[in-house]
Amino acid sequence: MRRLRPHRRPLVAGVVLLLSAALTACSGQSSDLTIYSGRNPELVDGLLQQLEEQVGGTVEIRYAGSAELAAQLLEEGDATEADVFFSQDAGALGALDEAGRLQPLPPVTLEAVPASYRADDGSWVATSARSRVIFFDPRQVPEAEVPNTLEALVDPKWKGRIGYPPTNPSWQAFVTSVRVLLGEEGARQWLTAFAANEPKRYDNNILTLDAVDRGEIALGLSNHYYWYERVAEVGLANVTARVHYVPGGSPLGLVNVAGAGVIGTTDNPEMAQRAVDFLVGPTAQQYFADVTAEYPVRPGVTSTVHDLAPLDSLQPPDIDLSELASLQQTQSMLQETGLA
C-alpha cells in the first residue's frame, strides 16, 4: 500500500485551500484503487493496510483534511483518480453528494448500519461515530452542574473557564449544527454570547483535555474518544478530568460520523465497493471500537478495551448529518464573531 501525506493546514473563512502538489502529482506507479482519506493516518493507517489485504489489489491512500479532499474532488471532476472517499465527517460527504459526485451504494452495504447513519439517497454510509462531550474538572465543578444547554454554557459564571479548539473540524461541525438548528441569526447570537465569555483557545482537542486535567479551565468542548484514549494510556487513576455526555438533544451532544462513499467516475467499482464493505464490516468496526475508541455503527459490535456509554443511550440533536456540509458559511460566521 502506497501513502501520500500532504502537509495539513487549517482552512480560512471563505477560502478552501487546495491540496499540495504531493496529492495531485502522479507517482509514476499504477494502483488498482485510490482512496482519498480525510482520516488521520495515525488513527487508520493500520486499518487501511488490512483493507488492502481484503479487497484484492494494490491500494494507494492519499491523506489530507476532509474538507480539502472534498474540494479537490470537486475541482478534479471526472478526471479524478479517486475511487473511494473516506471522510472524517458527514459534511464533506454531503457536499460531494449535493454535487452528484458519489454513486449509490447497494442495499447490502447500507443495511449494515442503522438508517440514521447513512445518506437518505444511499450515496454514503457511516463507518464510525463520535459524540460531542464536555470534559470537566471535578475539583472545580461537580458533574450535576456541568451545562446541558447552549444557554447554560454562556452563563457569565463560566467566563474564562471554558476551552475549545477553534481550528478543529469537529468544533466547526458542531457550530454548523448550531446554525442548522437555530438558524443563522440564532447561531450568530449564541456565538457572540459565547465569545463574550472569553473562552480559551487551544490548538487541538488533546491540549483542551490537558488544560482541563491540570485545572487550567473547568470545562472543555471536545469529542468523547480523546478521554477514553487517555484513560487507556495512563489509567483512570491518573486522569483528573472526567467526561460528560450532554442529554436532551442539545447540539453540545452532537453525534457526528466518519463515513465513506464510492466516487461516481471510478474505473474499478467492484473493488471500490469491497473497500466500503470492509469499512462497515466486523473487522473494521472492531478496530474502531478498540483502537480509536470511536463508536462502531454496525449493530452488535462493542469495544473490548474502552467502557463506552452505549451509542443508543446518547441523546444527540435530531439533525440530518448531510446538512453539516455548509462549512464555508460556518467559517465566515466564526471569523465574524471572533471565534475562528
Provide structural commentary.
There is one protein chain. With 340 residues, the chain is α/β, with parallel strands linked by helices. It folds into two domains: 2-129 and 256-317, Periplasmic binding protein-like II (D-Maltodextrin-Binding Protein, domain 2), CATH 3.40.190.10; 130-254 and 327-336, D-Maltodextrin-Binding Protein, domain 2. 37% of the residues lie in helices and 16% in strands. The chain is built from twelve helices and twelve strands. It has helices at residues 21-24, 41-55, 66-76, 90-98, 107-110, 150-153, 169-196, 205-213, 224-234, 269-279, 282-290, 327-336; strands at 2-4, 33-37, 59-63, 84-87, 102-103, 125-136, 162-164, 200-201, 219-223, 242-245, 255-263, 295-296. Strands 1, 2, 3, 4, 5, 6, 7, 8, 9, 10, 11 and 12 form a twelve-stranded mixed β-sheet that branches. The protein starts with a strand and ends with a helix. Mean pLDDT is 90; it is low at 5-28.
Fold blueprint:
Blueprint: E1 2-4, H1 21-24, E2 33-37, H2 41-55, E3 59-63, H3 66-76, E4 84-87, H4 90-98, E5 102-103, H5 107-110, E6 125-136, H6 150-153, E7 162-164, H7 169-196, E8 200-201, H8 205-213, E9 219-223, H9 224-234, E10 242-245, E11 255-263, H10 269-279, H11 282-290, E12 295-296, H12 327-336
Parallel strand pairs: 1-3, 2-3, 2-4, 7-8, 7-9
Antiparallel strand pairs: 4-11, 5-11, 6-9, 6-10, 6-11, 6-12
Helix pairs in contact: 2-10, 3-4, 7-12
